[in-house]
Amino acid sequence: MYSETTIVTAETSQQPLQEGQLVINVGPQHPATHGVLHLVITLEGETIIKIEPHLGYIHRSIEKMSESLTYRQFIYVTSRMDYLSAHINNLACAMCVEKGMLLEVPERAQVIRVIMSELTRIASHELWIGAMAMDLGAFTPFFYTFRERETINDIMEQTCGARLTMNYMVPGGVMYDLHPEFVARVKSFVVQFKSKVSELEDLVTDNIIFRNRTVGVGVLSKADAISYGCTGPVARASGVDGDIRKRFPYSGYEKLQFEQCIDTAGDSFARYIVRIREMYQSIHIIEQLIDAIPEGDFQAKTKAVIKLPKGEFYTRVETARGELGVYIVSEGGTTPYRIKYRSPGFSNLSALNHMASGSKIGDLMATMGTLDLVIPDIDR
Amino acid sequence: MFSFQQLAQQTHAWLQQHTGSFTVLVECAIVAVFAITLFAVLGLVLVLLERKVAAHIQIRVGPNRVGPAGLLQTVADTLKLLMKEGLVPNLADKFLFNLAPFIVMMVAMLLLAPVAFARGIQIWDINIGVLYISAISSISVIGILMAGWSSNNKYAMLGAMRSGAQIVSYELSAGFSVLCIVVLSGSLRISDIIAAQENGWWIFKGHIPVLISFVIFIIAVTAETNRAPFDLAEAESELTAGFHTEYSGMRFALFFLAEYINIFIVCAIGATLFFGGWMPLHIAHWEGFNHVMDYIPSSVWFMGKTFALILLIMWFRWTFPRLRVDQLLTLEWKYLLPIGLFNLLLVAIIAIMGWHF
Fold it and tell me: What is the ipTM of this complex?
């Protein structure tokens, strides 16, 4: 009776449908999936029985492509994985290559990398708050968060020449030196952020409807968070202290003062609060560094053609969504033999069925919204 | 002083002279033309107003390209919708699918009848005016259920079911808060309710119970018109577009228009019941002040009050997130309905004891 795709997906789901159940396809084109995620949801009335994510709609075989790109080139493709934290993806790859080359990165480059990473994290969280509020039916926060995000994008554009896929990190440092106005603009952004974020908190955090929609919704226990391999704010909201910046510091994070934001409730509201607090911590990190950017080279001297010794190299960084791991297998040539990315979104998505089963459709949007899924990151 | 009543009487006399026994038919036709024109104009104005209000709240400019300051934007949108192909899904129940938007539209049109737009401008001053409004407004749920069912789309079906539960529940609260005013005025007739507010509006005269019933009324009608934060029937982040997912072109435009007309009507009713409709702001014993207020035309009073309420409802939409379906029903059955019932009791005591001003 219903459309063809529905019949196919209903048949592919494991259990046969019971009386009164129905299957709906959320996605691949749906306002709440923020991309081409396809969820096959079994419903009983408004209650969710089962969620089955179907992936592959935006698979571009980045890992396979990277095998035929040189160690300088493959970094740029990773900007297209998690497009909201392009800097941090690039950083992870650059660090992995540096690890293979045993290359020492100049102090100045390291500080620039951290500042850029934290700016990216704020931009990503800002966008996430807007998108999540939109999932819950509030349009207005989106425009307020985009105002701040736009400022960061302008700063990025000035220094890196691009607003979304920056391609700024290269093996040995960063591609160019900072723009002369960079420091002043970042400082003015810090002031802007601090004055404007309270507006957002008035509009969203203290809103009674928002609290009712998120408190106690989509609860993920600490044990489940660990067993599903959740990382980033999703895991930290469940009480897992797994911030890579603290656990396995890189690029000079060990010298900085910042807190790992941990909540124990594990619900959607905890994930929201953890991200809000993370933004404050990122601002705190930027404030420590912005006046103390050391002089010196912004890039270490490297050969034009990079060759990695035979072996396996793994690095991990904390992106805005969680732990991103880069695994390179080298045969000693100019291109990697095999590359594997451990992307945070994939593991976080895997917990969705556990978190949202038994709740209402509206709760699914609140839960999925706070997982902060970026589909190209999951599919690669 | 110029009065609409005089104008109507003169027109009536002139028509009787020239058309004889067809007078009633001709008058009906004139009223229908006025009603449809009002419909179109209100739709265009309210959609533009909503977009401008949203833009203002969201720190952007809003439509500003078509016509001066974007004033013709909605006209352009309507033309576009008129020219768009109205798709009917292959497996839809075609008769019901085509009928549904007209039912929703018809309900909105019928509701215009007892609204008093100004002193002497009222299409039908029926003696059960308030009851008529409550009765007719609950028919629109049939149109929405029909649209959801006949579309043969699961999102539409879910949206329609939500809408059914929602409208049927919130009818009760809206009814009880309207009853408060009926108890105080002692009449269901709209003109009597307005006349009872000559020495002050009920919102001021009725103490706190009327204030409570006004708050309940605003919440209930926001829910009844499927507006955010109660827009669960449409809920685009959950159900793409809810009950009108499969509608396009002019059929969609009819739903869209009916939504805005319904907002206008519920706000007009709210303004009539609580803020005296076209009645100017009168304060008992302040003769000079009352006299000055009378110089402001009654239509300005009515439109001013109605649009103030419309702006309030638009403000809600662009501020609040959406409720979940069970929270929506909890709010109604556990909070609004008991409060409304108790409030009605208080109002009845006030009315019997004559404690109101």
Answer: 0.78
